[in-house]
Amino acid sequence: MMMGAVIKGYFAAAAGVQAQDLCSVSIMPCVRKQGEADREWFETETAGEACGTVRDVDHVLLTTDLGKIFQERGINLAELEPSEFDNPLGTGSGGGVLFGTTGGVMEAALRTVYELVSGQPMGRITFEEARGLAGVKEATITIPVGADSKFKVLEPAPGAGVTLRIAVANGLGNAKKIVKGVEDGSLAYDFIEVMACPGGCIGGGGQPRSTDKTILQQRQAAMYDLDERSAVRRSHENPAIQKLYENWLEKPNSHLAHERLHTHYQPEK
């Protein structure tokens, strides 16, 4: 949904076209994305004669849908010549790749948080504490605070650093366990990642089914391999994202960033 908002807002302006003249198609491993695309607050205001709103994402195809199209057209991915993605927004990061598996959002975020708090890149790039397919992963991580860091106020004592208690829930059943523990006071965390599907997006409802019981491990290993081979591994160092904030979103957590990239949910009646 974020990419749809960026395409209809930022990319349309950069390309010199109206948002209503662009068709945004997302390929997703998640069945729920088809319903989310219909939500009225995932829309972009249009200008000119067609003043009103247009959907951020016009169509959502599942991974399996795309696979069927390839089969019908006789397209064999293994036989295609590799090529670069189109720009702008064609540059990805290893951290972005990791979003596709359980623990990946946590790991990508910690890479950035560490640098924001300490003022320097982390000595290690991977967080093994967040990796794997365990139902619940927990860890306590202490980050040194830079001399001029605004996060010094969070240190319990000078030089003690900032300690983060993290948890990763793999699947909604495990998320329920964490929620129950937080509610009754037996668990306490500063940062919790929840992915509804077992394994994360790699195990989404729109993904190809397999009788191979190790398929999630194989897909997760592929995510880790892609991360390791990425030229940029920290999300905040992605030049395309930096330019996006510079030219459109202004800065992280700006009003515009919140308006275009965030959403909210309401209890069903």
Task: Note down, in words, how this protein is organized.
- There is one protein chain.
- With 269 residues, the protein is an alpha/beta fold.
- It folds into two domains: 2-90 and 244-261, Rossmann fold; 94-237, Fe-only Hydrogenase (Larger Subunit), Chain L, domain 3, CATH 3.40.950.
- The protein has nine helices and seven strands; from the N terminus they run αβαβββαααββαβααα.
- It has helices spanning 2-15, 32-36, 63-73, 94-98, 104-118, 172-184, 215-228, 239-249, 255-261; strands at residues 25-28, 43-46, 52-55, 59-62, 136-143, 162-170, 191-195.
- The strands form three sheets. Strands 5-6-7 form a three-stranded mixed sheet.
- A hairpin with a 5-residue loop joins β2 and β3 (52-55).
**Class derived from helix and strand content:** alpha/beta
Which spans have pLDDT < 50 for at least 5 consecutive residues?
none
Oligomer: single chain
The CATH architecture term of the largest domain is: 3-Layer(aba) Sandwich
Into which percent range does the helicity of residues fall?
A: 25-40%
Strand residue percentage: 5-15%
The CATH topology annotation of the largest domain reads as Fe-only Hydrogenase (Larger Subunit), Chain L, domain 3
Which word captures the global form? globular
Number of strands: 7
Quick overview:
This protein has two domains: 2-90 and 244-261, 3-Layer(aba) Sandwich (Rossmann fold), CATH 3.40.50.1780; 94-237, Fe-only Hydrogenase (Larger Subunit), Chain L, domain 3, CATH 3.40.950. The chain is an alpha/beta fold. Helix content is 35%, strand content 14%.
